[in-house]
Amino acid sequence: MTAAHPRGRPHRAESQRTQQPRPAGPIRVGFGRIGRTIRQKMTLWSTRETTMRVVFQGEPGAYSEQALIEAMPGADSVPRPLLRDVFETLVREEADVAVVPCENSQAGTIHQTYDLLLEHAGRLHITGEHELRVRHCLLAPLGAATETIERAYSHPQALDQTAGWLRERGIQAVSYHDTAGAARWVAEAGDPTCGAVASSRAAEVYGLAVLAKGIEDNPTNRTRFLVVAHHAVPQAEVEGKTSLVFSTANRPGALHRALGCLAARDVNLLKLESRPMRGEGWEYVFYVDCVGWATEPALSSAIREVERETAWVRVLGAYPRSV
Q1: Which of 281, 302, 293, 300 is nearest to 321 (CA)?
Q2: Residues taking part in catalysis
Q3: What does the alpha-carbon distance between residue 145 and residue 171 come to, in Å, rounded to a whole number?
């Protein structure tokens, strides 16, 4: 029997059409070690008989929830269906911290996360990062076998990361809004021809069989997550990482001069990526990750020089470097 698509049709991935307002002027802030800050907060909240609330995108069993469990054990997880919902929940102070994916070692950058970080620059701050080793599994109802699976539902990123494995077995990839959500639907449908690409924890949560483990095409598949909070925290005595975003004037050599400000201060770049500026035809913003704390003299001076060479600069966060 052929199963109907979940709720009539599979969910599409959340739209990337996030508005990016042009910021007016730079923001410079201080930061600190996320682990120490989280322990301090959890100690404080425990005296109030409350627990840290951490919002994530997805449903119970999602990789984002797994990342927050590893990074902040003991915290209460707050699921939200879309990335935008995660940020809005944090802004409304219905959660204390958010854990959001920003890039995968195979599929690349998750652009909407960066779009939302820019949209909320100055109100929310990156305060940490966590790397998760992603091990995809093929899940199905009890009694099913790999040979019976005709369609596999999952988030587009997970399907992209397992495309080769699925193609070799003739399994059709069907997009769903979330890996754990796909697992939940497969469990509810009970159709032995339908599977889900998700985590082994999702199998436990929804009572599914694990037909195959480690089906990702890249055996070192990893996703980097960012910890986002309401407030920046002071610089710590560990190596830091600072995330910037800026826009340059549309003239020859503008990007070269901006990056030259960092090079002149011996600032080591870890990432450089351009994104179209929403609402501005053929204009771009540049996201930069660099080694160091935004409050360190060399990097602080470099950022001031970048401000003079660009239309605007935002510091999205500075935090202990772990990736």
Answers
A1: 293
A2: 223, 225
A3: 12
**Rounded distance between C-alpha atoms, residue 276 and residue 136, angstroms:** 32
Residue segments in the chain with a per-residue pLDDT below the cut of 70? 1-50
Q: Which amino acid is at 95?
A: A
**CATH topology assigned to domain 135-217:** D-Maltodextrin-Binding Protein; domain 2 (3.40.190)
Q: Of 30, 213, 56, whose CA–CA distance to 135 is shortest?
A: 213
The rounded distance, in Å, linking the Cα atoms of 98 and 91 is 10
How distant, in Å, are the alpha carbons of 106, 111, 142, 157, 162 from that of 287?
19, 11, 45, 21, 28
Phi-psi region of 280 (alpha: psi -120 to 50; beta: other; left: phi over 0): beta
Question: Of 86, 124, 98, which is closest to residue 225 (Cα–Cα)?
Answer: 98
pLDDT given at position 50:
67
Q: For 34-133+223-320, which CATH superfamily applies?
A: Periplasmic binding protein-like II (3.40.190.10)
Beta strands 194-198; 97-104: pairing state: unpaired
145 CA to centre of own chain: 32
Q: Is 279 left (phi over 0), alpha (psi -120 to 50) or beta?
A: left
Bridge partners (DSSP) listed for residue 25: none
Instruction: Give the tens place of pLDDT for each residue, 110-159.
Output: 999 999 999 999 999 999 999 999 999 999 999 999 999 999 999 998 99
Q: Determine the Cα–Cα distance for residues 292 and 31; give it in Å rounded to an integer.
A: 11
C-alpha span between 264 and 298 (Å, rounded): 10
pLDDT given for residue 200 in this prediction: 96
Delimit the CATH 3.40.190.10 region(s) of the chain: 34-133+223-320, 135-217
pTM here is 0.82
Residue-level pLDDT at 2: 41
| 72 residue type, one letter | M
